[in-house]
Amino acid sequence: DGGITQSPKYLFRKEGQNVTLSCEQNLNHDAMYWYRQDPGQGLRLIYYSQIVNDFQKGDIAEGYSVSREKKESFPLTVTSAQKNPTAFYLCASMTTTAEGSLHFGNGTRLTVT
Amino acid sequence: QKEVEQDPGPLSVPEGAIVSLNCTYSNSAFQYFMWYRQYSRKGPELLMYTYSSGNKEDGRFTAQVDKSSKYISLFIRDSQPSDSATYLCAMSDSWGKLQFGAGTQVVVTP
Fold first, then answer.
1. B49–A107: do the CB atoms touch at under 8 Å?
2. Among candidate residues A3, A11, A8, A10, the one with its CA nearest the CA of residue A104
């Protein structure tokens, strides 16, 4: 079955450590996205990529970095510069021919203590 | 002020009742409107997609868009306990960048 795989489901890190969240899709979608979800705030866009080797900052990019070396993969690194990294992180993808049809993974819950 | 406002609930209804959800927005350029359903600890899944104003029906779900009032609604008829989830509205003015509401938690009690 086609879909988006995020791993791990739960991740625990100590403050000051960088951590990388994995996102892989086999839907052959061109665009990929990273969102952060906090209680009561909905989804906020961190980074997005419409094509391999290119990506743009979203609304809350500070303290995060991404890469897009392959069409299928869009890993997100949460750096020690992110002031409040504990959150639920969602990866999504979209074909360039279907507005609004974001397909989401099942998320990674990151807890930093 | 947020571009998209959505009451977080929770909204509790008895099984079989109609669930009524809505969002208001401030950006008149929005023209693509969506509703997503999200179960606990899962990713959102697309329920309804509407372009511009009007109504769209799919089974027990009806989406309405009123661009003049900057107001969108989702109705769920004959609600079931399996409809218990968080419902997120989303909208955009162009391809690719969506603005999401905060989500409304719905609880359907047997």
1. no
2. A3
